[in-house]
## 1
Amino acid sequence: MRRRMRRRREDDVEISASFSADELVFHEDPVVRTRVRGWPEHESLSVRERDGLPWRVRSGQVYRNVHVDYRVAGAMRAPEFETDLDRGGDERGSEPPPNG
C-alpha cells in the first residue's frame, strides 16, 4: 500500500519524514497539528501516508508493521493587491487634491 510521494515542481520548500517500526505503542493519545504560514501569499500541501495505523490511534494499543511517510511543502506567491502606483498615484498618497 505504500505510495511514493512526488515533489511538485513549484514548491519553494519541502520537509519530508518517514519512519517504520515492527511494533509501536502510544503511552498517551497523540495530538498532532500542522500549520504552514507564509507572507505575503503562499500555497501549502500536507500529505500523510500510513500503513499499519488507523486514522485515530489509541493509547496502550500495540500496532505492528507500521510505516509513515509525511511531507509538508510550500510555495511563495506574489501578492495580488492594487497599489496607489497601479492607479496612477504614488505610494505616499501625495497626489494633489482635486480642484474644486
Note: The first strand starts at residue 13 and ends at 25.
## 2
Amino acid sequence: MKKIGFLSFGHWTPSPQSGTRSAADALLQSIDLAVAAEDLGADGAYFRVHHFARQLASPFPLLAAVGARTKKIEIGTAVIDMRYENPLYMAEDAGAADLISGGRLQLGLSRGSPEQVIDGWKYFGYRPEEGKSDADMGRRHAEVFLDVLKGEGFAQPNPRPMFPNPPGLLRLEPHSEGLRDRIWWGSGSNATAEWAAKLGVNLQSSTLKDDETGEPFHVQQARQIRVYRDAWKAAGHTRPARVSVSRSIFALVSDMDRAYFGGGRPEKDSIGYIDERTRAIFGRSYAAEPDKLIEDLRKDEAIAEADTLLLTVPNQLGVDYNAHVIEAILTHVAPALGWR
C-alpha cells in the first residue's frame, strides 16, 4: 500500500444532530479536513460529486480552494458523473484547479450511477444520441475531455482577434501539462475496467461493483484490478498504472469510536440492485481494535492489489473527529499494511 487518502461525500443536513448543517459547512469543512489530513501525513483528499442532493456537487471551486490551502497532498474526485458535464468547459476548470494546486489534481470520472432524480442529466441540457444510452453518453463525454487535455490545437482562430494569437489552431486555456496522466475512471465492472486500461487512465474501484461471479466482494474486486492491469500491459502504455479502492474503516481506539462504530455485529457484504437490471455487491465495512483490524484487512485481496486506499469518512461528525479517524488508521493500522 503506497498511498492512503480520505474520501468525503460532503453530506449536510440542518438536523441538530449533524455537525454539517449547510452547504457552506460542507464546503468549508472539506477544506479544513484536507488541511488537517495533510498535516497528519495523509496522501490524498478526495471528494464525491452528487447532483440534486445535500452533498458536494460542483467540484472545481472546492478543488481549487483546497489546492490554495495545501502544499503536498493529492487532491481529487471519486467520482465526477460525466453524463452531466460539458467536457470542454470542464477541461478549462480542471486546468485552472491543477495549476493552482501545482499539479496535484487526481480527477476520478465515471459514466455515473443512479442519482436523486430521474435522468438528471437532461436538466443540464444533455441527451444521448439516437440509439445510445446515458452510459454511452457519459463515456463519450469522458473521451472528449481526455482528448482536449492533450493540449493540441483544434479551433480555427479568428483572423481579426481581440488579442494576438499564437500560430496555428488554438487549444483550450489554461492548459496544465501532465494532467492527462492523472485522470482516473470509476469502474463498476470488469468490462469497464478493461476499457479504462485501453484508454490509458488510472482505475478507481469503490465499495460496490456488479456481482459478476457470486464470490465475496474483495475477491471480485481483486479480479477486476488484475483484468485492468493485464489490459494496461497489453495496451503498451509506458507509464505505470495506478489503482485505488475505497473502504469504510474505523480503528476503535477511544470510547467515542466504540460508541459510534463498535456495534459488535460482524460486518459482511450485501447484495442489491442499482437499477432494474444490474445486481450489485456492496463491500463490507471494517470497525475493530487495531490488531483485529490489521488481521481483517490483510485478508482483503483487493486492498493488497491496489496501490491507493481511500478511507470514506463520516463528514457530518465534524472535522476534528474525522481527523482523528484518519490519524488512528495512519498511526495504528497503515504501517502494518506496508504503508511507507
Note: The domain at 3-337 is CATH 3.20.20.30 (TIM Barrel).
## 3
Amino acid sequence: MIEPIEKKQLDNIATWMIPIAETKLPTPLKGVFFMDGNPLPDTCITMYNLEWDTQTLSLVLPVFAPLQWTFHNSFAGWLLLIGAQIARFTYKIQFEDETLQRSQIMAFAFGLTIPKWILNFTMIQDENSPNGDIWYRKNIFFGMFPGLGDYTLRKVVDADGNYTPAFPEMLSKAPNECLVIVRNL
C-alpha cells in the first residue's frame, strides 16, 4: 500500500519527527539522525516509535513507515521514496551486545532478506560519543566494494527534543524542504 507523501522542512524537524509511543528504545538510539555524507537523496531518520526487542537487542526500521525517514524533494528523492514504498524496504538493526557499540544491519525488500553477500551494512558508535551522537554506517556491496556509500549518522535532535550542535551543519549541507511519508487516515 502506498502511503501519502507530504513536504516538510528540516529546520523545524524537532516539531514533527517526534516520538508518538513509548517503545523502550535505549537512549543512545533516541532522537533524529542526519545521514552526513550519504550519497543517496535521503537525509534524516529516527528510530522513534519502533519496537525495541530487549531480548535480541534489535529493532526493525521500515524505510516506508510514516515520519521515519526524510527524502530530498527532487526527482531522485521521489524515485527513492516510491521505490522504498513499493519494495517495502526495511532494515533490521541487530546489536552485538548491551553496550550498543556495534550492529549488523540486515536489509529486506518485498519481504525477503537481501543476502549479506549483496548488501553487508554495519553501524558502529563513535567511541568518543557514548550518548549515541555519532555513528558510522559502513557498507560492503557484493562482497567486494567496501566503503562505497559509507556515511556518518549525526544526532541533530536529542532525546529531549532539543537541537544538537550538529543541527546547523545539517542545515548547511541538506536541502531544507524534504519529503516524508505520512499516515494514511
Note: Residues 75-87 form the longest helix (13 residues).
## 4
Amino acid sequence: MFTADHKNLRLSFNEFHNVSDKDMPQYGEFCLLELKSGDYTAGSWHPSGNSRGKTGSFIRGTADSIGSEEVERWHSLDRYDITECLETEGINWINLGPEEEGSRNVQFEDFRSFADKKRPKEKQYCLLIMKDGCLAAGRWNKWRHEAGGAFIYAPALASHSSDKVWAWTPLSTDKFFAMELERENEKELEKKLNRNPSADPELFKYGTDIDTYYKLALEKLRVEFYWATLPMMRKKTPVWQIARLRGRYVFGQISRNYYNDSDIVTPWTEGTTADEFIDFLCKYTRDAVKNSNPEERFKLGTDINVYLEKAFENVRKDYRWLDRKMLKKTWQYGIQRVDGDLEFVRRYWNESEYTVFNVESSERFIECVEHDYQSAALQENEAVASYAATFGHISLHGWNLESYVFYKLRSGDYKVIVTAGDRTAGGSREFFITPYCFEAKTYEEFLDRYLEIVPDYSFGLGKKELLPDNDLKEFLGY
C-alpha cells in the first residue's frame, strides 16, 4: 500500500478549464467542478443532444446532476494516476496540472481513511483517492445491515466500494446532503424531546399500557361476539400502540423507515379522550373478531385430515392425475393453538416453522388448500407441446402483453401462461384449462367457456383474436 500519509496530504488542482470558453470535457469524462456559487462537486460530462458538446449536464447519480449553466470551471479527474507520488515516503503535496502564474489553483486536504475507522456522513459528496492511484468522486451511501458502504457516482447506483478507496475528503454541501443533515438533526431532536414525554390526562385516563385499552375494548366486543379474544383483535394489523411523538405520548401505529433507520409514528386523530379511543378500537378490530368465530372456522372439527381430504377430492375432479405422493413436497397443514386460540397453520415441507393461515371459515380454508394442490398438480404434469398465440401491441392496465402460450400436458390436459410487463417489471399467470371447457362441441363454444377462466379484459386476447386462429384450434383438438 502507499507510503504517503493521507492525514498530511494536500492535492493542488491547477489546470482548470473555463466553461464560458466552450472548452468542454470529452463525453463521459469525470471532472472536479467549481460552481458559480463557489462550491465544489464532481460529475461525468454528458452533452445535450443538439449542443455539439457545449451544453449539457455533469451526472453524479440517478436523478442527481449539475447543469453546465451552474458550472464556472472544470478539472479532469480521469487523466491522473498519482500512484508514483503516493509511493514516495514523506510526500505531502501533489500538483495536478502545471502550476502557472495567474492560473486557477484549488487545494484539498483533511483526507481521511476507512482504515482509521472513519467514514463520511450519509449522502456526503466526496473527493476520492482510489487504491489504484486514480482520482474519483461520489456520494456516500452506507450499507444498512453491515459495515462499510459505497460512493455512488453514476445512475443505477454505479458506485465505488469502500474497500477500493484509499482516502477521501468531503466536497461542498449540496441540497441532497443538506436534506440528509436536516433529517439527522430532526431525529436527534425527536430523541431529545421523547426522553420525558407528557401524557394528556383525558387521553390516557387508564394509564400508558396499551393492553389496558385493548382489554376494555374486548369487554365491549364480547357483548356481540362472545368468542372474542385479544389475539383475535390483534389480527387486525397494524396494531395500535402507545408511542412517543414530539415529546408526548400518543396512540399510534408504528412502521419502520428503512431508508434512514427510524420509526414512523402515525398518531390516532379521531378523538380526544380515552373512551373515544376504546370505542374506536372496537370498530377497528370488529371484522377481525367477527371472522374468527371458531364455530365457523372449525365447522368440520379439529382433525386437519378432514379438511385436506375434502380439498383433495375437489381438486381431483379436474386435475385427474393428482395423487397424494405429489403433495408430500408442498405445503403441510395443521390445527394448533396460537396465543391460546385455535388456528389453521401451514409450513413448507422442508421448513420447521409454521405460519398462521388466517381465514374466516372452513370453506375458505378448503379453497386455499385447493389452490395449493392445483399448483402442485401442475408442477408434476410436464408440458409436451406448446403453441404461442400471435398478437400485435396490447396494453393491459399500463402493462404490455408479452406472451400468451398454450401448453399440452403429459396427461393430455392443457394450460396457458400469460406474461405481461413494462420497462422495469413484469409477471406471469398460469391457468389450467378445465375439462369442462373441452366438453364443448364446437371451438366457438370452447372459447366461451375458456374466456370465463382467462377473460379478455384482464389478459389481452378475446374471442375476436382467438376464433380465427386455426392453428390454435387444431392444437386444442378441434
Note: The first strand starts at residue 10 and ends at 13.
